[in-house]
Specification:
The complex is a heterodimer of chains A (about 525) and B (about 775).
Chain A (H helix, E strand, L loop, with lengths): L2 E6 L2 E6 L4 H7 L23 E4 L5 E3 L10 E3 L3 H16 L8 H5 L6 H9 L3 H9 L5 H7 L3 H5 L3 H4 L4 H14 L15 E5 L3 H12 L3 E6 L19 H12 L4 E4 L5 H10 L2 E4 L33 E3 L10 H19 L20 H8 L20 H8 L14 H8 L24 E3 L9 H8 L7 E3 L6 E3 L6 H4 L4 H7 L5 E3 L1
Parallel strand pairs in A: 1-5, 6-7, 6-9, 7-8, 9-10
Antiparallel strand pairs in A: 1-2, 3-4, 3-5, 11-14, 12-13
Chain B lengths: L1 H15 L6 H12 L4 H10 L4 H8 L13 E6 L2 H5 L2 H11 L14 E6 L11 E3 L2 E3 L7 H13 L16 E6 L2 H5 L2 H15 L3 E6 L11 E5 L5 E4 L3 H12 L5 H16 L13 E2 L4 H6 L17 H6 L4 H9 L2 H11 L11 H9 L7 E6 L8 H8 L1 H15 L3 E7 L3 H17 L14 E7 L8 H8 L23 E5 H13 L1 H5 L9 E8 L5 E6 L4 H8 L9 E6 L5 E4 L9 H6 L8 E6 L4 H15 L5 H4 L1 H13 L7 H15 L3 H5 L2 H9 L1 H8 L14 E3 L8 H5 L25 H5 L5 E3 L1
Parallel strand pairs in B: 1-2, 5-6, 10-11, 10-13, 11-12, 14-18
Antiparallel strand pairs in B: 1-3, 3-4, 5-7, 7-8, 8-9, 14-15, 16-17, 16-18, 19-20
The chains are: A alpha/beta (about 525), B alpha/beta (about 775).
Chain lengths: ~525, ~775
């Protein structure tokens, strides 16, 4: 095969003639991002995230559509190229009307995957639902009774006919588990040999203990009171939160192998000893307890910690919950307990402590009236269920199924496999960088048995059009209109089912965003 | 019904052919038949041909010519070209919408009688603002004339005049009457003039030769009638109306004794016409006897593409040959080999006139050097810029010259098939070229063994369907192939891989029209004109706020000031020259302070503009530069094909900001964001459309930033942006109630003899009151 000599980032390569720059670079292990490129169909040069620079004249060009030629010199990642990619992503995001995560999830301090829990509950999979809950919330039966549920304020259905009863649904999954003889036990990772001391057994300390334990560490909690629970045992909560439930749920945490030393007040001497013998210390001492010098910086609100890492001025010491900022929101403390486990792991691994990575999240504003109808397509029309047996009793299992089915699936089906999201994350794109005066209304085309089409998430790359053409669909998909208003649709207003008789899964798989996704 | 479609489609396909590349002609034929594209008809095409639903839907929805909904019986086209825009066509469009009582999203009235459309440019810039109802063109339209126009159209539609013929006479000819038949002339009524002249001549049995000539270029004076009496200096009559014709003709071709009486008549007519105090008419003409500024208008010009203008019948091939036509072709075929032709064109320094200025000889050589076969040649006549009508005029007036240029190029590169790619919006140009091709075929200039040589080529006509982006050569090729007009990345250039993957030469119409001159007179003659890097001449459509607009051909290197002041006669009506917009939506605004910039490829680029295809719109102090930037950007944004992100989304976001500014809703940081977007759209876009779209914004921001800042503070210094202005009446008001009568929304109470008051809550800022006020008492600010 004929070969040509090209230079990428100053290193010379012999590559087969006829390749695109993108292909040649990929073969050489040089990363160039792509979205509208698909190896099964002709290149199209639409998304422009694959821009690279011609070293000879400084011009940018899309690498997916440019063929190599003898003597070509190019740059794949200087400041301008990276900026160009970021701008193209930000332009696409400025018209991307879709949420990656559902608003309930982004507003939950513990970022619990609420829509997934709802779908499992609607499907009768209570145990699986609890597993989802416990991935983020260590004390769901407790929070199911006392949480003010910011998630329900954010629920898109709130503006239609009442939020989904998320809090009670979560509680039900936890309550069901508490009834089991063999309750849910998370998989505990292999023993790391590291030991962590947690001071304070309130919601933050307990959650930190649970998630650190799951990571295979030896965890010891020091609690000055005779029982674990901290602020969860204040009298105001007595009516809502039966002691038995609290005790049972704390036991579930302890049973993972956490050593809880109650009635031990940590003084300076003990603290120094803990600092000595532990690999890390987590302060979860609640608000206003300041009887000893912890040797870390404080500000007015509490301990000073790094923003997402919860690391104090002493790298070995972390702080969470009301110890860093007084709050009555137990779910926040529980969420921080989960997050600090991640940070401590980073510290133990010798990595930079930056906390759980913040993943790019596309968001759009309120739903319009017409969008209510679109979103309701994926949910039952029933009104919000109030527990027949009263709030104290919670929802019955029938009520759970009925209520969970009201969830409208606001989260994106492609949230974990969306190229647009991944690249936006990589390039730290800001969706608000370019302001749009108006947005298109979202639509959900759900008629097809296997896939869903959401045009407002489309980046008009045309991969689907080229695929349906290649596979000779009778109708297929086509570009309709031109310019900014171009959209993808089935010719002659035929249904998606008629358009995609054999390529539905293929196009859903190939779509670089959540516009076409599997049901 | 379905059987009807079957039969119709069968007939249509028999005419157009039925392969994929015929999809646009098929759609055009369907629309001709039904006045829109019925879905059943498209389905029928798919079942009768290889054309897929995906392809036909994609193509039909890409080009703006195609309608998916039935249109009304008549189409009202409001021209929103640059010249019309600066003269208020937006308000005229709104006035028509009110007249037809249309709601948002509707374009056809309840009776389905009229459909309203905006068109990019009707090419009658000197009559701006222009409205076309079916084939009748109305010039200088104001917002209060919409009802009158519809009434006038109805009246004339019903009274069809009989066609007049002149009886031939064998007697000696006393002289010649030349009537301009370019689009501007026809639009302004020259066809009617022709009919009256024919009538007068035949009734009086005059020994006069009646001659139809192409565009003279003096579009500001249309319709034009030129009288050439044997052995006498010719006399040009401008802005002639039918009623004047008899006087004019009789004045020159009647016994002399009658003259005093006639002269009086002429004066009387002139008085009547110039007195527009009680004028309610639609068209507005004055009769100037012997137009004086003609010499300064024509003096600075150098006609090459427009050689023999005003003196040659576009379709008379014998006349073309008499004046040296096809001499170059003959010489080329007999005496030169292709490389010699290419060398000569290279020596001439000719650069493409389509905008980018690529050296023509080099391009030819690239195609000639390709070994592939067949080779194609395309004449790009897809002139879509608002405010540009050079190609139209050249195609209408000099069809043989363009054909000759094409044939020479075809010989040089060894092309097998040539295409005329023309806008369907230029029906006159399409018909002239079709007829000219027919004549050339008969005479042996096209076809096999041209002029007895071994060289053969076939030339075909292809009509575009309304997409500005198809002026870009790769998009143009995609559309001939029967696809959506998506441009593609170059390289490979069309010279290597063009139409159907074969080597293809794409040159602009004006480029071809200059080729015969070069070959006939030698490279040095052409080379001697212009500047070091830009040789020869350039044709511009001069329009806007200038006393004498029209089609001009000037030597490269002439300054903007010379064009505006000497040729154009300066800014109209005692206003001040503010800027010129040169190069249309790809070009930029050059302020009056830089008016000494020479017009050549490099100098224009240095000041942020570009040659573009040759629109040149003059702006005065009343024009808002933010509004101008928004105008051009809304054009390109609307014409973006939508393929690449930077152009598709970037231009939209830029327009969002400009819209905000013009509506007084600008936000802090908007100007910086606009600058950032401009530079990235330029850098990141795939084709020339996006890469040049920010030019009008960048140049206006560079030279008129204070106007942007004023808009950010909610002020439009020129009072153009209607959201930022208010109408009021000052104490000059005489209480005549004309404004109250004209106001379409009753915002002015009917109070005779009292100073009128405008209710600004109701006022829609349509400008009707200001236009009708006899004492100029309406204030805008």
């Amino acid at each position: 095969m004929e070969k040509v000599k090209i230079k990428i980032n100053n290193s010379t390569l012999d590559v087969p003639a006829g390749l695109t720059v993108y292909q040649a670079a990929s073969n050489a292990g040089i990363y160039i991002p792509v979205m509208c490129e698909n190896e099964d169909v002709d290149h199209f040069a639409s998304c422009m995230v694959c821009l690279v620079k011609d070293a000879a004249n400084g011009k940018l060009f899309p690498s997916c559509s440019t063929h190599v030629y003898e003597g070509m010199e190019l740059i794949t990642a200087d400041e301008e190229v990276l900026e160009a990619r970021k701008i193209s992503l930000e332009l696409l995001l400025s018209e991307h009307v879709g949420d990656c995560e559902a608003p309930c999830v982004t507003s939950c301090p513990a970022h619990m995957d609420i829509p997934l829990m709802n779908r499992l509950l609607a499907n009768g999979q209570t145990a699986e639902a609890l597993e989802v809950v416990k991935n983020d919330i260590a004390l769901p039966a407790v929070l199911g009774r006392i949480c003010p549920a910011p998630c329900e304020s954010a629920c898109r259905r709130k503006g239609i006919d009442g939020a989904v009863s998320i809090c009670l649904l979560k509680r039900n999954s936890a309550d069901e588990d508490l009834k089991q003889d063999e309750p849910y036990m998370p998989a505990i990772q292999k023993d790391t040999g590291k030991s962590i001391a947690i001071i304070g057994a309130g919601p933050a300390g307990l959650a930190a203990a649970y998630y650190l334990r799951i990571r295979g560490h030896k965890v010891t909690i020091y609690e000055k009171e005779s029982r674990a629970g901290g602020d969860l045992r204040v009298p105001e909560l007595k009516d809502k939160l039966p002691e038995e439930v609290l005790n049972q749920e704390i036991d579930r945490i302890i049973n993972t192998g956490v050593n809880c030393k109650c009635g031990v007040s940590v003084d300076k001497k003990l603290f120094d000893a803990l600092m000595e013998e532990s690999d890390a210390v987590v302060l979860a001492i609640g608000a206003g307890t300041e009887h000893i010098d912890w040797g870390v910086k404080r500000v007015f609100k509490g301990f000073e910690v790094s923003k997402r890492g919860y690391q104090s001025s002493n790298p070995k010491v972390f702080a969470v919950g009301s110890a860093i900022r007084a709050s009555k929101l137990a779910v926040r403390a529980v969420g921080q307990g989960k997050e600090v486990a991640f940070s401590v792991d980073q510290f133990l691994a010798g990595e930079k402590v930056i906390g759980e990575p913040k993943v790019f999240n596309s968001r759009f504003g309120k739903l319009s009236e017409r969008e209510h109808i679109e979103f309701l397509k994926e949910a039952t029309a029933d009104l919000r269920v109030e527990p027949a047996e009263g709030l104290g009793a919670g929802l019955s299992s029938d009520e759970v199924k009925q209520e969970a089915a009201r969830c409208m699936h606001c989260d994106c089906r492609k949230k974990d496999s969306c190229t647009l999201r991944d690249l936006s994350d990589d390039y730290e794109a800001d969706q608000r960088s370019f302001s749009a005066d108006s947005r298109v209304e979202t639509e959900k085309h759900i008629q097809h048995e296997a896939i869903i089409y959401e045009p407002a998430k489309c980046i008009k790359c045309g991969i689907c059009v080229r695929l349906t053409r290649k596979h000779k669909e009778e109708f297929g998909l086509t570009f309709i209109g031109r310019g900014f208003d171009v959209r993808i649709g089935v010719p002659f207003n035929e249904s998606l089912s008629k358009g995609l008789t054999k390529t539905a899964l293929l196009v859903a798989e190939a779509c670089p965003t959540g516009a076409l996704s599997k049901k | 019904m379905s059987t009807d479609f079957k039969e119709d489609i069968k007939n249509i396909l028999a005419q157009t052919g039925n392969s994929k590349s015929d999809v646009i002609p098929i759609l055009q034929a369907i629309q001709n038949r039904y006045n829109f594209l019925p879905e059943e008809a498209l389905r029928e095409v798919c079942s009768a041909t290889e054309i897929t639903p995906e392809n036909i839907t994609g193509v039909a929805s890409f080009y703006s010519q195609f309608r998916m909904q039935p249109a009304g019986e008549h189409i009202i086209k409001v021209c929103v070209g640059t010249a019309c825009h600066v003269k208020g066509s937006g308000l005229v469009h709104d006035a028509f919408r009110r007249e037809l009582d249309l709601n948002d999203g509707e374009d056809t009235d309840k009776d389905r009688k009229y459909t309203i459309e905006k068109v990019a440019c009707l090419g009658c810039c000197t009559l701006a603002p222009v409205v076309q109802v079916d084939n009748v063109t109305y010039g200088h339209v104001s917002t209060d004339q919409t009802a009158g126009i519809i009434k006038d159209f109805e009246k004339h539609r019903l009274s069809k005049k009989k066609k007049l013929f002149r009886t031939g006479s064998g007697k000696e000819i006393e002289g010649e009457i030349r009537i301009g038949l370019g689009s501007c002339c026809v639009a302004s009524g020259s066809d009617e003039i022709r009919q009256v002249v024919e009538e007068v001549v035949s009734k009086n049995d005059l020994q006069v030769k009646l001659k139809h000539v192409g565009c003279v270029g003096m579009c500001h004076q249309v319709p034009l009638v030129e009288i050439v009496q044997t052995n006498q200096e010719s006399i040009l009559y401008a802005k002639v109306i039918p009623d004047d014709v008899r006087s004019i003709v009789e004045r020159h071709f009647q016994p002399k004794g009658l003259l005093p009486r006639l002269a009086r008549r002429v004066t009387k007519i002139a008085e009547n016409i110039l007195d527009d105090r009680n004028w309610e008419g639609i068209e507005k003409y004055s009769l100037d006897v012997r137009e004086k500024p003609v010499s300064s208008f024509l003096g600075r010009q150098v006609p090459i593409a427009t050689e023999h203008r005003g003196g040659i019948n576009p379709l008379d091939i014998e006349e073309y040959i008499d004046k040296g036509g096809f001499l170059a072709l003959k010489r080329v075929l007999k005496e030169m080999n292709p490389q010699e032709v290419i060398d000569l064109v290279k020596d001439s320094g000719m650069r493409g006139r389509g905008g980018a200025g690529f050296p023509t000889g080099l391009k030819w050589e690239m195609v000639a050097n390709q070994t592939g076969s067949p080779k194609y040649l395309i004449c790009n006549g897809d002139e879509g810029d608002p405010g540009a009508f050079m190609d139209r005029m050249i195609l209408e007036s000099y069809p043989y010259r363009v054909i000759e240029g094409i044939l020479i190029a075809a010989y040089a590169i060894g092309a097998d098939i040539g295409y005329f790619y023309m806008r369907a919006e230029y029906p006159l140009a399409v018909s002239r070229i079709s007829q000219a091709l027919e004549v050339c075929r008969e005479k042996g200039y096209i076809g096999n063994n041209i002029l007895g040589s071994s060289f053969s080529i076939d030339l075909r006509m292809y009509q575009g369907a309304g997409a500005f982006v198809c002026g870009e050569e790769t998009a143009l090729i995609a559309s001939i192939e029967g696809n959506r007009g998506f441009p593609r990345l170059r390289p490979p250039f069309p010279a290597e891989k063009g139409l159907w993957g074969a080597p293809t030469l794409v040159n602009n119409t004006e480029t071809f029209s200059q080729i015969p001159f070069i070959l006939r007179n030698g490279a040095d003659r052409f080379n001697a004109i212009g500047t070091e890097t830009s040789r020869g001449t350039k044709v511009f459509a001069l329009a806007g706020k200038v006393a004498r607009g029209g089609l001009i051909e000037v030597p490269m290197g002439i300054t903007i000031r010379e064009i505006v002041e000497e040729i154009g006669g300066g800014v109209a009506e005692g206003h001040t020259f503010k800027a010129v917009q040169i190069g249309g939506p790809s070009g930029g605004c050059i302020p009056a302070s830089l008016a000494d910039t020479p017009v050549d490829f490099e100098s224009l680029g240095e000041v942020g503009a570009m040659m573009g295809s040759g629109g040149l719109v003059v702006l005065d102090e009343r024009d808002c530069m933010v509004d101008i930037a928004r105008y051009f950007l809304s054009f390109t944004q609307n014409e973006s094909c939508g393929k690449c992100t930077f152009c598709r989304v970037g231009t939209k976001r830029m327009l969002d900001i400009l819209d905000r500014l013009c509506e007084g809703k600008g936000k802090k940081g908007d100007l910086e964001e606009l600058e950032k977007l401009s530079s990235w759209v330029k850098k990141g876009s795939l084709c020339g459309l996006g890469q040049t779209a920010p030019n009008p914004v960048q140049t206006t921001m560079r030279y008129f930033r204070e106007e942007y800042e004023a808009h950010l503070n909610g002020v439009c210094p020129t009072g153009r942006c209607s959201a930022l202005i208010k109408y009021s009446v000052d104490d000059r008001c005489i209480g005549c109630t004309l404004c109250a009568q004209k106001c379409p929304v009753d915002a002015i109470p009917f109070t005779p003899h009292e100073q009128h008051v405008i209710n600004t809550d109701i006022c829609i800022k349509c400008d009707s009151c200001r236009q009708v006020c006899p004492v100029d008492s309406i204030r805008v600010g």
